[in-house]
Amino acid sequence: MSTGPSAAAGSHAAALRHVLSHLVTPLLMCVGMGLAYLGAFHAPEPHDLRVDVVGSGPSAQVLAQTLQDKGDGALSVRTVPDRAAAVDHLRTQDSYGVYVPGRSPELLVATASSDTSATVVEKVFTEVAAGQGAPLKVTNTAPTADGDPTGQGIFFLLVAVSIGSYASVAVIGGAGAVLPLRIRAALAVAASLVVSVIGAVFAGPLFGLVDRGLGGLWAMAWLYAAGILLIGVGLHTFLKRWTTLGVMVLFVMLNFTSSGGIFRPELQPGFFGALHAFWNGAGFVEGVRSHVYFGGHALGGHLLVLALWFVVGILAMALAGLAERKRRVAVAATAPTAGERRRGEQAGAGTETEEETEEEIEEAVAV
User: Fold this and answer.
1) What is the rounded CA–CA span in Å between residue 72 and residue 351?
2) Using CB atoms within 10 A as the burial measure, which of 132, 148, 206, 347 is most buried?
3) Cβ–Cβ contacts within 10 Å for residue 338, how many?
4) pLDDT above 80: residue 45
């Protein structure tokens, strides 16, 4: 009679240990998301935000120097000889605001580059114009599409494509772990294609986030999604159930926060601004902006970023193939029977129990 209660207690203790061990992942996600999002977004302040003052005379020079000194590092102010040169700087994203002084002062911005940066610049020069006793006229030289009035729709498209990609990693890497690597790679490429098509439908016909350049947006979405999927599936060979946390760190915590979709690097702490230069989310967001709104200026650099992440994905898959081959050889060398050899090959390929696979998929999709 004592066997039943003791067995039940042992079973409950094992179940409790199992639950507690799996709680580590969501708690680490909580800490990581808090550090990443609050660290990147909680207190945006400009630093070295580039603005131009039109004019070459002493008054323009004095105004520019005054703004530079008063800003204490918030602004990087320079003078330009005429309005046309200043507009060109906006179109090449070399500046985020142009002030044209005079009896009727005017501020030129490009909200397609960053609505939040334009808002910061407008606040600064509204005060300047008020000090001169004149209302400020604001001219938007690069407005966004009607379906994206805040200019942040591309960022939320990035979120949708990213979630579709990294959630697919859990399915292919977990449920498909018994499949040969070449089939998993093919599934990753196919899934990235489907995710990118969904993203293009969101951006164009469904929500009208862009009013031109939809084909190029789709191509960048595919390249971005394929990089995530190949990296994630490759990492699954090594990280197993920790893959979800790994791809969350890479493609959510560090990715969304450094993409420039909400705040450009000039409004963020230096760490996230530095990541903006080479992280794949920034490559996608800035690439779409360049392609759709700025005539392809600097597009090659953004495409290079996406292509390099895709190459990293190919390398991750290659390393996974080498690792799985070594495991199969090691298992085959110690397995005396064909049945044990087959079981060993499955284990070497990263086979997980159905329960662990389902938990991994649920973690990825729920987050």
Assistant:
1) 58
2) 148
3) 8
4) yes
